[in-house]
Amino acid sequence: MARKRHEVLTGRALVEKVKELDHLTKEEKAKACGYYSMTKGGTERVSMMKFSNALLDALGMNLDGRGSSRNRGGRSASYRITVQANGNLLIGSAYTKQMNLEPGDEFEISLGRKHIHLKQLSNEEEEDVSAA
């Protein structure tokens, strides 16, 4: 079964379409602007996060205080990760770039009930451990 392509609006076109659709719900606006996909079962899944981010971007609103994501290469951080089939958690380069981390930086891991806390080890701590 061939998938039907739909246009995803961005920028000024997105803002204008959202204004036209003022009478619709958020989900209906997102779908009308192309922010949905079809699941294998044939149901539609509305991508509200992508829609909201695209609308904020189109309006020139930057919530994180950094430069526009259009100026960066690569993928942007979604702040969500999934446990891989081998049991690993992969933290991508989008996060390490935001934290200005370099290869070889080390962290202490603390586990909570449903969270992981990373504490970066400073060079001084590493020197103290190796001097002992």
Short description:
By secondary structure, the protein is of the alpha+beta class. Helices cover about 35% and strands about 10% of the residues. It has 2 domains: about 10-65, no CATH class; about 95-130, no CATH class.
Topology readout:
Elements: H1 11-20, H2 26-32, E1 36-38, E2 44-46, H3 48-58, H4 93-98, E3 107-111, E4 116-120, H5 123-131
Antiparallel strand pairs: 1-2, 3-4
Helix pairs in contact: 1-3
Domain SpoVT-AbrB: 78-123
Protein name: AbrB family transcriptional regulator
Pfam family, one: AbrB-like
Describe this structure in words.
Residues 78-123 form the SpoVT-AbrB domain. This protein is an alpha+beta fold and 132 residues long. It is built from 5 helices and 4 strands. It has 2 domains: 11-66, no CATH class; 93-131, no CATH class. It has helices spanning 11-20, 26-32, 48-58, 93-98, 123-131; strands spanning 36-38, 44-46, 107-111, 116-120. The strands form 2 sheets. The chain has a two-stranded antiparallel ribbon with strand order 1-2. Strands 3-4 form a two-stranded antiparallel ribbon. Helix 1 crosses helix 3.
